[in-house]
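Please go through the sequence and fold tokens given here and tell me how the chain folds. Record follows.
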Amino acid sequence: QVQLVESGGGLVQAGDSLKLSCTASEHIFSTAAMGWFRQAPGKEREFVAVISWSGRKTYYKESVRGRFTISRDNAKSTQYLQMNSLKPEDTAVYYCAAARAAHENSWYSGEDEFNYWGQGTQVTVSS
């Protein structure tokens, strides 16, 4: 059974940093593009960032580019989202997701392209 388990959420002030982690079952992680999505209260879930299976390709939502960094450690079957200069509008439940990748450098940004999802971790940024 594939499992994605997020951790690292919390309550911080604007300008602070947080680092989210997501550990996946090894058999899916090794050939999956890994992504982060978020859902704010009353809004639809949206794409945040993605990293290819190889780790060489990344892509970000425009509003987080330059503040957030996605990375992965394939030996630990874990991906990360380093979030700096957090803003109140970053408040949301953050979800880890895995997509079966066609190629080691493939990446995806659509929800329907991701096959597995974590349970989510709350990030709250106060002003």
